Automatic annotation (TrEMBL):
Keywords annotated in UniProt: Oxidoreductase
Stated family: Belongs to the short-chain dehydrogenases/reductases (SDR) family.
GO function terms (MF aspect): glucose 1-dehydrogenase [NAD(P)+] activity
The protein's enzyme class: oxidoreductase
Keyword Oxidoreductase: yes
Protein name, per record: Glucose 1-dehydrogenase
Xref: PANTHER family: DEHYDROGENASES, SHORT CHAIN, ESTRADIOL 17-BETA-DEHYDROGENASE 8-RELATED
Source lineage: Bacteria, Bacillati, Bacillota, Bacilli, Bacillales
Domain of life: Bacteria
Pfam families: adh_short_C2
Keyword Oxidoreductase: yes
């Protein structure tokens, strides 16, 4: 038996990078996965690559009505949703004095408000399923400060706090809520050949985190293996924050 057989998952920001890795991992372990993104071309390509166990939908995660439509379509296609991975996120880098209000608002809207909208919207479906695991992708930027990331850090600290509140409120329904805090992940946008060596040297494990390693943690939290884990900050950073 595969580790998430019978579960229906939604993954936001799932067309590329770390999100696509989560989609592939969950589907390979038996879940039916609805994944969303604004990148329609990449989303359709990934759906075709994986096959009938996944469904791609275009979604603006900051739109409350869009959340309702995605959850309704997931339930219609596969059944009640039992896993939500809030993965979609953006970042702008600038010193605080130079950070525009518009840029700040946009980061908060995508990284923080969308997580709230997703958690709120999925609860009725998880109640129907009789179980639930909400996995919010935060960052080590959600547990310590980082230069030139005033909005990103604000949003990720907020995700950390919202996760704990949701875990307290939803535990009575058998819904678990946890946050994942990766350090810099080696995706297509990052290469060790472009400064990764010096970054890796900051970590006690001496290398950069891979997207597959984050997906393994997502799988664990989505599965019944983590049935007593809720409200947790799951740090995956090679020991960086242990210093």
């Amino acid at each position: 038996m595969k580790r998430v057989d019978g579960k229906v998952a939604i993954v936001t920001g799932g067309a590329r990078g770390m999100g696509a890795s989560h989609v592939q991992k969950l589907a390979s372990e038996g879940a039916k996965v609805v994944f969303t993104d604004l990148d329609i071309e990449a989303g359709k390509a990934l759906q075709e690559d994986i096959g009938p166990d996944v469904l791609f939908l275009e979604q603006d995660v900051t739109d409350a009505d869009a959340w309702g439509s995605v959850i309704e379509e997931a339930a219609h296609t596969f059944g009640p949703v039992s896993v939500l991975v809030n993965n979609a996120g953006i970042n702008y880098s600038a010193a605080m004095e130079e950070f525009s209000e518009d840029a700040y608002d946009r980061v908060i809207e995508v990284n923080q408000k969308a997580v709230f909208l997703g958690m709120k919207a999925v609860v009725p479906s998880m109640k129907q399923a009789g179980e639930g695991s909400i996995i919010n992708i935060s960052s080590i930027g959600g547990i310590r400060g980082r230069l030139e990331s005033i909005a990103y850090s604000a949003s990720k600290f907020a995700v950390t706090g919202m996760t704990k509140v949701a875990a307290l409120e939803l535990g009575q329904y058998g819904i678990r809520v946890n946050s994942i805090h990766p350090s810099l992940v080696n995706t297509d946008m990052f290469s060790e050949n472009a400064g990764g060596g010096s970054v890796a040297g900051d970590r006690p494990l001496g290398r950069v985190l891979t997207k597959e390693e984050v997906s393994n943690l997502v799988l664990h939290l989505a599965s019944d293996e983590s049935s007593y884990t809720t409200g947790a900050e799951c740090v995956i950073d090679g020991g960086l924050t242990a210093r």
